[in-house]
Design the sequence.
């Protein structure tokens, strides 16, 4: 549940900043806060930056929770921090600002089962267990 809250927090922060910037731009353009034309352009650029980050927070961050033989497997793909967590323990992680290849996270369970997560360039997640695609999601 922590991963879901983290993603929601990122999205709410950027949405709040975006709405505040749009309101400030509207107030400046309407003449309520004074006739500073250069300030309108600065705030408009800030609007664009906030909009880009808000869209990025919505589209480029994700997580998936799976259940396999009583084990909870969570794959988290954030802006630059990605990890594979099994029963609350991080088993593999990858830190990067930018990558041009898919990210592979893997580990072996106690019973010898191979778990591999693939995170694409747009942070879409797929999980393979023993080289077979696994789609049974956990209800959390």
Sequence:
């Amino acid at each position: 549940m922590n991963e879901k809250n983290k993603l929601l927090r990122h999205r709410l922060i950027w949405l709040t900043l975006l709405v505040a910037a749009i309101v400030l731009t509207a107030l400046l353009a309407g003449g309520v806060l004074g006739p500073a034309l250069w300030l309108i352009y600065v705030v408009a650029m800030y609007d664009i930056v906030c909009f880009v980050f808000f869209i990025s927070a919505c589209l480029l961050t994700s997580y998936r929770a799976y259940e396999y033989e009583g084990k909870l497997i969570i794959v988290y793909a954030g802006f630059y921090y990605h990890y594979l967590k099994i029963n609350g323990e991080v088993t593999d992680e990858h830190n990067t600002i930018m990558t041009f290849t898919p990210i592979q996270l893997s580990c072996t369970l106690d019973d010898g089962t191979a778990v591999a997560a693939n995170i694409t360039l747009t942070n879409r997640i797929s999980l393979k267990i023993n080289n077979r695609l696994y789609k049974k999601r956990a209800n959390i």
Residues 2-29 form the longest helix (28 residues).
